[in-house]
Amino acid sequence: MEKSLIPYITAEVAKKIDEELMSTFMYSIDQLMEIAGLSVATIIKKEYIKDSLDSKILVVCGPGNNGGDGLVAPRHLKEFGRKNVDILYPKKSNNDLYKRLVTQCENYKVSFKEIDSIHQISSYDYIIDAIFGFSFHGDVRQPFKDILSKMSEVNDKIISVDIPSGWDVEKGNINNTISPKGLISLTLPKKGVSEFKGKHFLAGRFVPHKLYEVMKINVNDNLYKDSELYTLL
Is the pLDDT of residue 202 over 90? Predict the structure, then answer.
């Protein structure tokens, strides 16, 4: 897909789309996380691990919505027959939604790792970065500063969700954090990743085209093929 056919949006526009989805279009945050997490798991399975059942996968989750998407993905990866899926979730949310997502993962026997497990991060075949989303700004704080530093040693194993964690949503990698091999943008890609050099997917099929029309965002009508949850940019 040519970049010219896909608009790269600001954090403000991304926020407005989310607000419209949950007000005018009556989506719940649970629904959006479920679709996003399923899309992430589908991309990891079809584009990366493929037929391998033994690949070791670590999902690194933050405390916000991006982390929520990350907490959904392991359950679907387990449903796809992947055995070795772990989660690093060092700053757990007390919100009931996130507690339910954790319980769902535990019921699928997904293992939650402690913070000191970052020293074994190189033992994983794939690392899903679901720490910070488009609302991130400012400096990276602990414990995520150390986590991202360790992750940067294995950039060739990282697939980021929505935007690489630590990147400025509109200015890119100004904090010099990770440089992932893959990126799964949600809704629409953000301006800060316009020069991203790795494999770049878009998983935003949950956005009604009518919403793009209301917001006067020009999006290709044929962005997704058939029943696919994602497209390659």
Answer: yes
